Amino acid sequence: MRRYFREVHGVPLTDGDMDRVIVTSGGQRCITVSLRSLHPSTKVFLNRWDYSAVAPIVEEHGGEVVRFNCNEDLSPDLTDLEEKVEDEAVLYLSMPNNPSGYFSARDLEDIASLMTSRGGGVVWDAPYVFTILKLRKDKAEFDKRFSETMITAFQRTSKRYYDGICILSSLSKTCLLAGLRVGFATASTRWIQNMSSLIGREDLSSSTPSFIIGESVLQRFLVDHSINQWLCKILANRLTLLLEEKLPLILPQNGVFGALYALLDTGKEDGVAVSERLLDQSGIAVVPGEPFYGGPVNAVRLSLVASPWMKGDEEWVKNVQRLKNALYAMGLI
Questions:
Q1: Along the 333 residues of the chain, how does pLDDT read in single tens digits?
Q2: 252, 150 contact by CB (below 8 A)
């Protein structure tokens, strides 16, 4: 884990920094303990579009969730954040963003600077940093050199603001091994100590098969990223098909995309109602945008990975056409 954070995120860890890393039974558990390790009265800031599971975790722990706005291009409205932020607050951010796919190394750096200057910190949920694509008007593409450049840009923030950032990751997303329950994090010694105190001894008192396998997988991953590059090419092709079919997607406007999901604009209809109609009338399952947005919103989330891949990706092509026909019948396109 130390090697992963050192090589991928540029965190200045040594092999002896055992007190600055932690392993959990899954990425979701990692998110939970990072947030529950905060003082119960802490204000936790969330981007308007962000991972839906975070707000309930914070609120059940006694914290207060404060949403700050997005700009039209899906970038975080840092002016709004600066006006709302308070001393000793913490900001949770999935970057690249789940579910909008937006990301910017500069935005992460500005956020880290702001939060640490006020005596607070950042929980950076970062398992999607290997799914970065280039976006053009009607096409998405994977460029290995471009992706590596973006990851390098993130490292600047990790190196400079490490003591105020808790970086989270998981094998299921990073190494594309759904079901292998291994999450891992790095942060300051005190933050890791707080997280460790929340993890039950029954979870981590002995090595589990997932941890044993996970160690080998992660070592291999650091040598060979080919499986992620394969996935990125599939993601690019699937996103390109959605663009070619002119579905009303809500995509970042900075020419970059980085998630396993895409947002679909439902026009004047609420996303919850649209998701129910799609399921009832066409047997198509999408997720309402509301829990990710923090309130009612006319959008739904599409999964780019729900359909298993086979040569030619015929199932995905068929499903996209079904979705397009259903949206047309509903008067949404």
A1: 789 999 999 999 998 898 999 988 888 999 999 999 999 999 999 999 999 999 999 999 999 999 999 999 999 999 999 999 999 999 999 989 999 999 999 999 999 999 999 999 999 999 888 899 999 888 999 999 999 999 999 999 999 999 999 999 988 777 776 667 788 999 999 999 999 988 865 455 555 777 778 788 888 888 888 888 999 999 999 999 999 999 999 999 999 999 999 999 999 999 999 999 999 999 999 999 999 999 999 999 999 998 888 889 999 999 999 999 999 999 998
A2: no
The tokens for 296 are 């009612």
308 secondary structure, DSSP code: P
The DSSP result for 160-194, as a single string, is HHGGGEEEEEEHHHHS--TT---EEEE--HHHHHH
* Kind plus residue range of the DSSP H or E element containing 265: strand 261-265
Residue 326 contacts by C-beta under 8 Å, 6 or more apart in sequence?
A: 278, 281, 282, 284
pTM of the model: 0.92
Burial of 56 (0-12, 13-18, 19+ CB in 10 A): exposed
Burial class (CB in 10 A: 0-12, 13-18, 19+), 154: buried
Q: How far apart are CA 163 and CA 160, in angstroms?
A: 8
| Domain annotation for the chain: domains and CATH numbers | 2-223 (3.40.640.10), 226-329 (3.90.1150.10)
According to DSSP, residue 74 is labeled S
